[in-house]
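Note to self: keep these together.
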Amino acid sequence: MPRILLIDDDAQLGPPLAAYFARFDMELVCALRPGAGLELIRQGGLDAAILDVMLPEMDGFALCRLIRKESDLPIIMLTARGEVMDRVVGLELGADDYVPKPFEPRELVARVQTVLRRRVTPPAPGVLPDASARLVFEGLVLDPAMRSVQRQGELLELTSTEFD
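Structure:
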């Protein structure tokens, strides 16, 4: 189940949005302050982050820049600041998408699903992955060089056809 981090100082936004995300088999983890959100990101186990721009202590743009220095975690900006220049700045600082408030929860879920899909899209047909690169996704580890697959640390017995 994908874990999505919401960093927004509106305490009333998180619980109903978390319930909505759960309907789509996603866990929404909420942080009211940028520092708490950064700590969760540094702990790992998150698949994407949704950031408000207007946050206490540090604005979402600065937070996006900081996250981008440390991680390639997909970032969606969610904010009442919907001016074109705000969107451009957010995207130039490393955000993957930008959703202005007010928003429809279904659209936000669709945008999260899109950034998650982009993150795990396999290479195009005929393009081979780097043989030394291990692919990791939700407890699965695929090692092309060793032609092996592990699930939760346990080696899976696969035929050549199954591996391919």
